[in-house]
Design goal:
By secondary structure, the protein is an alpha/beta fold. It folds into two domains: 173 residues, D-Maltodextrin-Binding Protein, domain 2, CATH 3.40.190.10; 98 residues, D-Maltodextrin-Binding Protein, domain 2. The chain is built from 13 helices and ten strands. The strands form two sheets. A five-stranded mixed beta sheet has the order 2-1-3-10-4. 42% of the residues are buried.
Length: 316
């Protein structure tokens, strides 16, 4: 009887304990919602930002409690818009974001957007050009969209590896859509193009690749990403965490190139034929300081940054 009584007592104690835990779990505090329900995100290059645009259109951010408003940047500087409070997160080339950070702008990276792949960025010439080898000219005139962005950085790296003195390269600044005219007029010997301009030039003008930009020091090179100011990130950690979570899922879904090709004509001027022909890079699903440091270090070694930038310090 004593043994039986003791057993009942133990069962009662265990039930009481488990009951308390059940009630406690039911009363557990729910995760706090994002600090704000709307996030204004500056976007540009439709290929680089395709996963984000697709996710917004499919309502993926709304499911996470966020309304993401896409703000087309055009030729405007996204970091300037961040600093003026016109947007909360900006897309930008890694080169432009790192240059801003090195200049004193406190930025926190929110995600990598795009990584170049084979023939997604290249030096091109037109048929009949006398520039047929990267070392064919000692002081080549190269058309780039900006003298201090990723195009110029890539051109220096590719031509420098081939044996051209980077200091002797003459850069001619042109918007991508005007580069073919610069080649036709003789204003440039070659143009550093990215997709879809590369495929259009090949399809419409018979442009030829002088050198693939995704080789050597710039093989599978990080191209672009998303960033917020340090102040905004400190004030809105849950909002940005939700943004990063959905963005990661969107980037993962974009590992299927067919999905990207099918979607591009719906939010850009890339037609179906061109979308089917373009070369696509990859869409990283993680923020890698090691991977991104390659960009900052190449900027430093090429003279674009006076001092080495620690990319790890820019991660959440």
């Amino acid at each position: 009887m004593k043994a039986t009584g003791l057993a009942f007592a133990l069962v009662a104690i265990l039930f009481a304990i488990s009951g308390c835990s059940l009630f406690q779990s039911g009363d557990a505090a729910q995760p706090e919602p994002p600090e704000r329900s709307t996030l204004r995100v500056g976007v540009a290059s439709p290929i680089d930002t395709a996963p984000l645009r697709i996710a917004v259109g499919a309502g993926k951010f709304r499911q996470a409690g966020l309304t993401v408003q896409l703000v087309e940047l055009g030729s405007q500087n996204g970091v300037d818009k961040l600093n003026s409070g016109q947007i909360d997160v900006t897309f930008g080339s890694d080169v432009s974001l790192f240059r801003a950070a090195a200049g004193g702008t406190a930025l926190q990276l929110q995600g990598e957007a795009y990584t170049f792949g084979r023939t997604t960025i290249a030096l091109v010439t037109l048929p009949g050009s006398n520039y047929t080898e990267p070392t064919g000219k000692k002081s080549p005139k190269i058309a780039v969209d900006s003298p201090d962005d990723i195009g110029a950085l890539t051109a220096r790296a590719v031509l420098g590896t081939a044996g051209v003195d980077p200091a002797k390269i003459q850069f001619v600044t042109r918007p991508f859509e005007q580069m073919p005219q610069a080649l036709q007029a003789g204003d440039a010997d070659a143009a550093l193009m990215v997709e879809p301009y590369l495929t259009r030039a090949e399809k419409e003008l018979g442009a030829q690749v002088l050198a693939d930009g995704s080789t050597g020091a710039t093989l599978d090179f990080p191209a672009s990403g998303y960033a917020a100011t340090g102040a905004f990130a400190a004030a809105n950690p849950r909002t940005l965490a939700a943004f990063r979570q959905v963005l990661t899922q969107a980037q993962l879904a974009a590992s299927d190139p067919a999905m990207v090709r099918d979607a591009l004509p719906s939010f850009s001027d890339i037609d179906w034929t061109t979308a089917a022909l373009i070369s696509l890079g990859s869409y990283p699903t993680t923020l890698s300081a090691t991977r991104l440091q390659r960009v900052a270090d190449l900027m430093h070694s090429s003279g674009q940054l006076a001092n080495r930038l620690d990319v790890q310090a820019m991660l959440p």
